[in-house]
Write a structure and sequence with these properties.
Length: 369
């Protein structure tokens, strides 16, 4: 996708597609959300270098060509989602939160390709005998951000070194070169973990004994306790609240949507469709249920794309036929279960930044005719 507008620190590119469009295909080809904290850099891939340093035996400076040719390429299909996905629901059902008013569309399910981070770190050689307590920090110095002079994040070194963790340095997205707005020429992809950790336009990888010191690791993307009611009250909690990593189990109803009028079929049912996401590394999704009576009874949905048992990191698209009486102000809910046994709860605890919302999927005020 061409990026022609002059996006900036003051006006970064942040957008999401209509959720009905989003679920039109298992692999998100066109309807991709964008989340940025600054301008979109345009990088020359022929000269770009990724530095690997910190607690390693050999500092590496890897060109894009080396990342392509010197390491085995790995494909992973995973859902990448903003930590603030569904923030609007937390804001409207619970109380006001601080952040972009994301609906249900700040997620995309794509195929990513590139070398495993594990292989790159093994080439550099870890200079630590036990990875416990160490971190891998990612940094992009290409542009200033709204709250820092650069963008950075980190994950646990143990997660990075897991062969089944599938953390990669992505050079391709859906079989094509990364689009500029999604990190060209190289970005990190950390399946199951909040999108904030999958740093775009990657410049540096550092193995270190502490988390990234960047603003977005230390002062954002954390599920603060409910006592943090405003920015002033939150100040004392930032340093003692862990940074969000694994995303929680979730499901969303894409159709019918809140406020929509839908016809009932000849058999007295309404078709309900949506997506579901497993918790962290606990996938795949194994069940989605739908209720039209405030959770008293549930009907199991049919799992469509992504339900073959191989999609540990991907979403599942689902469809159900719900028997519902004609009339106004109907409410339809969904809940998901994953292989790890995680079951979506009715409503999570409120937090100031409105991140990690995973209450039941819900369409309200639906008129059935």
């Amino acid at each position: 996708m061409a990026i022609d507008e002059d996006y900036s620190v003051e006006k970064p590119l942040n957008r999401e597609p209509p959720v009905k469009d989003l679920i039109s295909s298992f692999i998100t080809q066109k309807e991709n959300y964008d989340r940025n904290h600054g301008a979109i850099p345009h990088i020359d891939a022929t000269t770009h270098v990724v530095r690997v340093d910190g607690a390693v035996k050999e500092v590496l400076n890897l060109s894009i060509s080396q990342l392509q040719k010197d390491f085995q390429q790995h494909d992973v299909i995973c859902a990448l989602q903003c930590a603030g996905n569904r923030r609007h629901t937390m804001r409207t059902l619970l109380k006001e939160v601080d952040g972009i008013d994301w609906g249900d569309g700040a997620v995309m399910n794509c195929q990513w390709s590139g070398p495993r981070l594990r292989d790159v770190l093994r080439k550099a050689g870890l200079a630590v005998s036990d990875p416990t307590g160490f971190h891998v920090a990612f940094a992009c110095f290409q542009t200033e951000t709204q709250d820092d002079s650069w963008y950075g994040s980190s994950i646990a070194l143990e997660r990075a070194m897991r062969e089944d963790g599938d953390v990669i340095l992505a050079l391709k997205m859906n079989g094509d070169v990364l689009p500029v707005n999604h990190g060209y020429p190289v970005r990190v992809i950390v399946p199951g973990i909040a999108g904030a950790r999958s740093v775009k336009w990657l410049d540096r990888i550092t193995v270190q004994s502490e988390e990234s010191r960047n603003f977005y690791q230390q002062r954002d993307y954390k599920i603060l306790p409910p006592e943090a009611t405003d920015k002033e009250a939150a100040a004392k909690y930032w340093d003692i609240t862990p940074a969000i990593q694994d995303m929680p189990i979730n499901s969303v109803i894409a159709s019918p949507q809140t406020g929509e009028t839908v016809p009932v079929s000849t058999d007295g049912t309404v078709e309900v469709k949506g997506y579901a996401l497993p918790q962290g590394d606990q996938g795949p999704i194994v069940k989605v249920e739908v209720s039209v009576d405030d959770g008293k009874t549930w009907v199991e949905a049919d799992l469509l794309d992504g339900a073959d048992g191989k999609g540990k990191w991907c979403w599942v698209l689902w469809r159900a036929s719900a028997r519902i009486e004609r009339g106004p102000n109907r409410r339809i809910q969904s809940r998901a279960t994953d292989k790890g046994g995680n079951v979506q709860e009715p409503c999570p605890q409120w937090n100031l930044r409105g991140v990690g919302y995973n209450g039941y999927g819900e369409s309200r005020d639906v008129s059935v005719v």
